[in-house]
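Subject: for your reference before the review

Hello V.,

The reviewers asked for a structural picture of the protein, and I figured it would be easier to keep everything in one thread rather than splitting it across files. Below is the amino acid sequence we used in the manuscript, unchanged from the supplementary table.
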Amino acid sequence: MPLTRRLPKRGFRPLTRRRFEVVNLKQLAAFPAGSTVGPAEFERQGLVRKGERVKCLAEGPLSHALTVHAHAFSARAREVITAAGGRAEVLGA
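And here is what came back from the structure prediction:
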């Protein structure tokens, strides 16, 4: 049997893979307190590309309350946002 058939193959990507653009809490600190932010505001700030799903991760501090709309949140990011007095709202699809 040829060597190419005996070696494992690499590079498989599932067609149903969900890809996210990442926004960290330290990047959310740039928005004013009490504001509502979502993918449109992230695009204007240059944090994500247009039309991509957004996931919020808990890297860095967040000292003021924000209402954050994103497609996904890490558990720790959701805790930090609510502890600061804000809300974490999940967007569909």
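For the response letter, the relevant points are probably these. The CA atoms of residues 57 and 86 lie 15 Å apart. Residues 19-90 form a domain with the Ribosomal Protein L15; Chain: K; domain 2 fold (CATH 3.100.10.10).

Happy to draft the paragraph if you're swamped.

O.
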